[in-house]
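Why does residue order matter? Because the sequence determines the fold. Keep that principle in mind as you read this record.
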Amino acid sequence: MKPDLRAKILGVELGNPTILASGIMGVSGAACCYAAKNGAGAVIPKSIGPKEREGHANPVLVEFDKGFLNAVGLPNSGVDNSLGEIEFAMKNSGVPVIPSLFGGTKEEFGMVAEKLDTLRPQLIEVNLSCPNTQDDFGLAFALSEKDAGEVIKLVKSKVRAKVIAKLAPNVPDIKTIARAVEKAGADAITAVNTMPGMAIDAKTGNPLLHNKQGGISGPALRPIAVNCIYEIYKAVNIPIIGAGGVTHGEDAAEMIMAGAAAVEIGTGIYYRGIDVFRKVSGELEQLMAENGYATIKEMTGVSHR
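Structure:
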């Protein structure tokens, strides 16, 4: 009997546990649908803020031997201009669509959440942790249990959707942040966003990113993400979505075994193509069959037993 790849997040069923990560591909409704067509079990469009934002100047992306450094800077057309694209994805992708939001202040998070909720999404991801806008917004909300909790509490008061808090890896103890957002009402947690990093041209001494510093994604981030998932799983009683460096089925299995109910894929599209979702699902299915796992739920958190 073939393993059952279906995953469930807060009552929302996914045909498989792979999710298009925010900021990759999902810049339009059509792009979200394209990811779904190529096997994504759910899609998260690019994070939406309160107003149009250009982002940082080029270069915003640098490849290194184990991943990427990016400092895109959250470019988006603002919530009012983005609702139509998200609605298109919700009506045409055939999979759950999870809007992602950010803000420069707690009040902006609440305002964007309220507008996104008019689309009646089942789930919303709150990007508390984007590390490459610090000069614009100050310290990321995900770095403070108080600030993270206050944002989640406010967003919860503005929406009917279930709320997913996306956390940052660069904190002394991610368990304390996870507990804080759970206490504030978060229904689930995404772990994790990119890790701050930097690359310098050794000949000129110049930083390679225009923004100088950026976020590490890809395979280099995966062991950090797996560790964060493992720690969070011990600390909270809400579902976890893993994110950071998933490129193959074994990568997804690692995160699920650490405690994730599903996994996001972003940089993996660069390494294996847009059908990486289908490839990862197929490899995961084979791994489950070979090791006696019948369901994703059965595999979730086995590393803690």
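The CA atoms of residues 121 and 168 lie 24 Å apart.
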